[in-house]
Amino acid sequence: MDYIQVSTTTESREDAGRIAAALVERGLAGCVQVIGPIASTYRWQGKIETATEWLCLIKTSKDAYDRVEKSIRELHPYEVPEIIAVPLTQGSRNYLAWLGEQILP
Description:
This protein is of the alpha+beta class. Helix content is 32%, strand content 39%.
């Protein structure tokens, strides 16, 4: 199985926690780490913005990505949430085996 780490940011710890819990409860992620607060600088509607956000690092499988993205969009308060994924090219064999057991087909 191919594994990925999906990231998204939210405006509050509560939103991040709600997304994290839902993804794990739905069997779409083995683990979601919430990190923050972080400072984000970005361009939105032609202006440079700075915001305090919370980062979710979501461990899942490549096969589950579409369901993860759909769930994040459903739960996320942002009009255009960051949802990006990077492949996990290596990892502890035991951890990856555990991760695979957590994700529902």
